[in-house]
Amino acid sequence: MQMYDKQQYKGNHHSRILNVNPIVLISKNLHEKSDGMKKKIVIAGGTGFIGQYFEEKFTKLGYEVIIISRQSHHLPWTDHLGIVKALERAEILINLAGKSVNCRYNDANKEEIMDSRTETTHILGTAILACECPPQLWINSSTATIYRHAEDRPMTESSGEIGTGFSVDVAKAWEQALFAFQLPYTRQVALRISIVLGEDGGVMTAFENLVRFGLGGAQGSGNQKFSWIHIEDLYNIILFLQDKKDLSGVFNCAAPHPVSNRELMSQLRRAMNRKIGLPSPKWMLEMGAVVIRTETELILKSRWVLPERLEKEGFEFTFDTLEKALHQIVKSPR
After folding, report:
1. How many CB atoms lie within 10 A of CB 100?
2. pTM exceeding 0.85
3. Between 168 and which of 5, 135, 163, 243 could a Cys-Cys bridge form, CB atoms 3.0 to 4.6 Å apart?
4. pLDDT tens sequence across 234-256
């Protein structure tokens, strides 16, 4: 198994992965707003569960939020000059773009999953290079799936082992696409995001349906670790990184107390007032995945990820335990 170290990224990129970027980034005056000019943030791929939440939150903070997406009423990916204009004097660029991995990994889907991440990242980096006053902070999604299947020990930014397989290849290429750009006036951050929990969307809908229909038992062995993060904490991490202007590189975005799949389903049944939940053995999950056209990796891979860098830098989680998160998300009885 390949150990994670700085040499995985060639050239000068590795200094941005684990260490604080030593470059003095940009004069305050360069981003000083003229009288009456509204604060601005750009969210690429901002039409999904996370993007909509971020848009609502930043709008409430008084930001103009510009969305880049394939949807007709947003700024299109093909409009290079429009993207450059949107990024001029923006405080933050957040890139969430990428085809959902909730599909079968056939050749066509694999190509789209990869290209929808690397090509959009390249488009954004090229646009930043064309800006006269670029964003001070570029936050790009990555995934905690970059680490290997881990039931023996947790994975951190400093000691985690990079895994193998298609999903890992995507994650590595995604991060490489980000850090390939040398941007002296823009901090670059890759968020290795674990499973995001929140109300009215994301994976919670599927998990709640399983419990509701009596299938809320352990999945597979039940021993696989489930690393997760509440969507509010993910949003607060964005604000934290905006404020901490000396930080760049990779950050694990996962609550500090992961649980096993068995404990996840037990706590969810408890929160929904369901005493019984039938287990789903691996063979059943594999059959079901074919029927609903997805992959069992999404459930069976053991993701044991800890937020070492965030905690070291002083970030405090609002939802540090699954019990707190489910109490906020689940409206019982169901």
Report:
1. 11
2. yes
3. 163
4. 999 999 999 999 999 999 999 99
